[in-house]
Amino acid sequence: MSKRTLSLLLAALSIGAFAQESAEADVQLKPVTKMSFLDSIKSGFVRHDELRCIDSLWMKELTNTDLFDDMQEDIEMVNPDEDVAFELPTELLQQRLKELDAKSPFNIEYSKGLENIIKSYLKNRPKSFSRLMAISQYYFPMFEEHLAKYDVPIEIKYLAVIESALNPRAKSRVGATGLWQFMYPTGKQYNLEVNSYVDERCDPLKATEAACQYLSSLYNIFGDWDLVLASYNAGPGNVTKAIRRSNGQKNYWNIRKNLPRETQGYVPAFLATMYIYEYGKEHGITSNEAPVTYFETDTIMVKRKMTFKQVADLLDVPVEELEFLNPIYKLDVIPYVADEPHYLRLPKDKIGLFTSNEKAIYAYVDYEDLKRERPYFIDEQDKEALASIGKTTKVSTKYHTVRRGDVLGTIANKYGVSVSDLKKWNRVKGNTIYAGQKLKIHKTIIVNLPKEETAVAAKTAKPKKVEAKPEVKKAEETEVAATEVDEEVMVANAEEKVEEALKAPVTKVAVKETKKPKTAYEEARLYIVQKGDSLFSIAKKHPGVTVENLKDWNKLSGEHIKPGMKLKVSSIN
Fold first, then answer.
1. Would the N or C end of the chain have less CB density within 10 A of its end CB?
2. 3-state SS of 76-117?
3. Which region, left, alpha or beta, applies to residue 210 given φ > 0 means left and ψ of -120 to 50 means alpha?
4. Of 268, 271, 241, which Cα lies nearest the Cα of 255?
5. Which neighbouring-strand residues pair with 526?
6. Of the candidates 158, 102, 414, 381, which has an alpha carbon nearest to the alpha carbon of residue 270?
7. What is the pLDDT of residue 9?
């Protein structure tokens, strides 16, 4: 065969082998990834058509705090008497203010101070107001609904802009909180609950309702909306004092000089904000369209304690969005109290997803709750339940030898006990322990009931004749084991256990129908093997006992023993 033919043959074989390997590689199955419990829950969700969620940039805008800080600074620092260079003809401003006054219950009159504040906002805060106008699209429809309900001027909606910059979690330096900046006592006066989990001053709906009630009550006192604004900021008492100091005059601009410094710029800031919202387009201030409004969300009452993290994982909603929609919850946890309903606000499409899969969602929440570590206690009902299945509890004692560097806290953590228990068990008054010191550690464990006790505990078990054995026999059938305890303590414990076993009453059912057992020895004792002991030397210490007796009683196959072992011994009759 020629070299050329041989080469072609080898090439064909190589191509065939390569093709076979490629085919085998193509049909290799991908490893199956094990699904988590969360994924398995979500895979069974009934899903509806997805609507768009709040954009992340929009969410950042809604939760931004710099607008609130800027607005507070303006109210405190802007001087109405300081001229501002900005191109806005006075005549044009006067005309626009008249138009506003004609359709508003507020006394909107031109003044040099108001002109300076309007020009200051237009010059220094155009971007801030553009952002505020975008956020307003979310809140203003809800504000207007409640204001109309209480016959409060619709323009009052601008009050929330200067109070909180429309940040539901805004908090002033004196503790005023929420969209409408309620102080704690005023909030309680209007039934706004504040506790460890919830601050209803941050709830847009409830806080707006309370604000409408409060503003209505202030109007009933003063009968003038300008004075209502001033008293909302400074308090009714300070406004009343300013009226007295102004010889009974009740026009805001006439008593303004007698009001607190912050309140002197408060009403002008409100009127300037109203002007910019009404004539912003004429000054080139526009806003982006909000992707969602308050009416495009809805609430559902929760039936379990849930965290925002759990809701976010289940519904694929960012935690930041949940925080914005539910600012009422201080710890990002929705509590569950049987007689106090708590609600979760979500976009409407997510409400549908939640309600369609409510059982699966609560199953996941329960599953997460089961993973939480709990304290372990056993009461009488638990003991009865354990007895019915042939179990009982037993206190097991261990000993820890203190080493250099050990402290009570680390020892307690190691054994899963409390420091206070550790100190009580060992009569330690302070926190000082010493290297080499032995500390008792008590642990409650679940063990099998002895056969006789199990028969008595089971209600449905029928009594039958059994050959009873003294309680001490149970101790004799226990496997011998080496321990880490020092010899004196072990001997003392062993003697106590034997004495208790000898004193323990024999089960009544068994005693009535049993005869005296025949044993090779009458009184059982435990011997702790010492260093240097052998079976022969131990047998010599107990008259009549042989090495074979010791091996038989303790089920030893050889003669190997070690210090610390417990051996059953007896005096032969």
1. N
2. HHCCCCCCCCCCCCHHHHHHHHHHHHHCCCCCCCCCHHHHHH
3. alpha
4. 241
5. 568
6. 158
7. 55
Average pLDDT rounded to a whole number, residues 516-526: 49
Q: Which of 263, 266, 154, 146 is nearest to 207 (CA)?
A: 146
**H or E element in which residue 135 lies:** helix 126-149
CB atoms < 10 A from the CB of 51, how many? 13
* Count of helices and strands (H, E) across the chain: 28, 8
pLDDT band at 510 (very low <50, low <70, confident <90, very high): very low
- The CA distance from 308 to 317, in Å, is 9
Q: Are 480 and 466 in contact (CB under 8 A)?
A: no
Backbone angles phi, psi at 398, to 5 degrees: -115, 165
Phi, psi of 445 (to 5 degrees): -125, 160
DSSP code of residue 282: G
Sole residue written with tokens 């303790």: 554
CB 163 within 8 A of CB 180: yes
pTM of the model: 0.58
Lookup: tokens for 202: 């941050």
Cα separation values, 239 from 161, 211, 233, 260, Å: 22, 18, 10, 9
- pLDDT tens figures, 302-341: 999 999 999 999 998 889 889 989 999 999 999 998 888 9
How many CA atoms are closer than 13 Å to the CA of 154, on its beta-carbon side? 10
Q: Which two tokens stand for residue 503?
A: 């004193």
Label residue 497 by pLDDT band (50, 70, 90).
Answer: very low
Give which of 485, 382, 373 is closest to 438, Cα–Cα: 485
Measured distance CA(464)–CA(456) in Å, rounded: 11
Residue whose C-alpha is closest to residue 80's, from 210, 283, 272: 272
Cα 334 from chain centre: 9
HSE (CB half, 13 Å, CA atoms) of 369? 10
**Distance separating alpha carbons of residues 523 and 572, to the nearest angstrom:** 9
List, in sequence order, every residue forming a beta bridge with 307; answer none if it has no partner.
333
Please name the helix (run of DSSP H) or strand (run of DSSP E) that holds residue 184, with its range, or none.
helix 184-189
Alpha carbon 462 to its chain's center = 51
Strands, DSSP E only, in 364-413?
A: 391-401
* The pair of three-digit structure tokens given for residue 425, joined into one six-digit string: 């068990």
**Read out DSSP for 412-454?**
HHHHT--HHHHHHHTT--SS---TT-EEEEEEEEEEEPPHHHH
Phi/psi region, residue 443 (left: phi>0; alpha: psi -120 to 50; beta: rest), is beta
